[in-house]
Amino acid sequence: MCEIFCFNSDKPKQVNECLECFYNHSENHPHGWGLANMQNNKAMIDKEPVKASCSQHLKDILSNPVVGKNVFAHIRLATVGEIISPNCHPFTEADDNNRSWMLIHNGTIFDYPELDKYKDKENGDTDSERILLFIIDKINEFEAEKGSLSTIRERFNLLDNLITDLSKNNKVNLMIYDGDLTYIHSNMKDSLFYLKNDEGFLIASTPLTDDENWKPVELNKLFGLIDGNIIFEGKRHDNEFILIPEYEKAIEEFQESLRD
Hints:
Blueprint lengths: L2 E12 L1 H8 L9 E7 L2 E7 L7 H7 L4 E9 L15 E4 L5 E7 L20 H20 L5 H15 L6 E5 L4 E4 L7 E5 L2 E5 L10 E2 L6 E4 L2 E5 L11 H15 L1
Antiparallel strand pairs: 1-4, 1-10, 2-3, 2-4, 5-6, 6-7, 7-8, 8-12, 9-10, 9-11, 12-13
């Protein structure tokens, strides 16, 4: 599956060193890379359906300082969808009130029929993009019924319920940004770690530095971050994902089809 990265802080910081370490893992995640630097509710997105270590475009980006408060990165090992640019993370979309959303995903949706209706609406053909479209639809429904914009707390509570339900029988390691709040969720053991220090929060699929203070992200709970601090914690659920042989076989068969 994929690897994901997030930097969240109260002030812009340079993150080149961590990004270079993260993208060095692309030998095992060769199906694309992505980078999002979120500034003032605008997404500066770069992505390509090529191995990160082979991308001249990425080398050019990292040859200059990458500075931001909310920076996200992704390297893809495809389990759903072709190896094409529209299937590379991050995914971005605006809701009906012109709020920009960004999502990156490490995992696979094996069982959630409600996402199927987005197959004809998405730009690519990944389950991850469908998750974002599903969330935005629910936000639009909530705000239409309320008759006004949602608060940060309301959005967090809504996503807490949606992601809890979505995580049943599915691997849902997610990083989402809505212009205000960064959402972090993991439901598979030892697949997402964090480091909190004076710089802010670093979160990644595997520790990116030699610092001994990296810790596993608490499982089965949604977290909301702003300015390098956790401001919301969701309800703990019981939907831990375990890669059973049936799921492993499905992933192996898909990746074999890519090689063919």
